[in-house]
Design brief:
about 120 residues, alpha/beta, 2 domains, about 25% helix
Length: about 120
C-alpha cells in the first residue's frame, strides 16, 4: 500500500477512512487550527482555492502575493519573517493551550520554531 492509498475508496476517490483511522481523521479535521505553508506549495495548489478545511492559511514570503490572492480571504501573506508567520498562525489557530488542541499544520521546517 502506498502512503496515501488508505484515503482512497474503491473508486479511487477520496473517502473518509473507516475504523481508528477515521476517528483520527475526524479529530484532526474538527480541531481548531491554522495552516502555515511555503509560497511554492500554496502557489502550486492555487492556495487550496482559498480554503484548507476552513482553516486560515499563512504564507511567509519575501514578496507580496499576486493579485489572485485577494479572492481568498483566509490566505495571509506574512512579509516580516517566519517567526511572525508562526505567531500569527498560532494566534489564529485558537483553542486552549494544551497538547493537540491548538495546531498549526504544515511548514515542517518551521516546527523547530515553536509549531504546535
Amino acid at each position: 500500500m502506498r502512503l496515501h492509498e488508505w484515503f482512497l475508496g474503491p473508486d479511487g476517490e477520496f473517502a473518509r477512512p473507516a475504523g481508528p483511522a477515521g476517528e483520527l481523521y475526524d479529530e484532526v479535521m474538527d480541531a481548531p487550527g491554522a495552516v502555515l505553508a511555503g509560497r511554492r506549495t500554496v502557489e502550486q495548489v492555487d492556495h487550496w482555492g482559498g480554503d484548507h478545511h476552513g482553516r486560515p492559511i499563512f504564507v511567509p514570503s519575501h514578496r507580496p502575493p499576486g493579485p489572485s490572492v485577494a479572492n481568498y480571504p483566509l490566505v495571509t501573506y506574512v512579509l516580516d519573517g517566519i517567526e511572525s508567520a508562526m505567531a500569527q498562525a498560532k494566534a489564529a489557530a485558537g483553542g486552549p493551550e494544551r497538547a493537540g488542541a491548538r495546531r498549526v499544520h504544515g511548514a515542517t521546517g518551521a516546527r523547530g520554531r515553536g509549531a504546535g
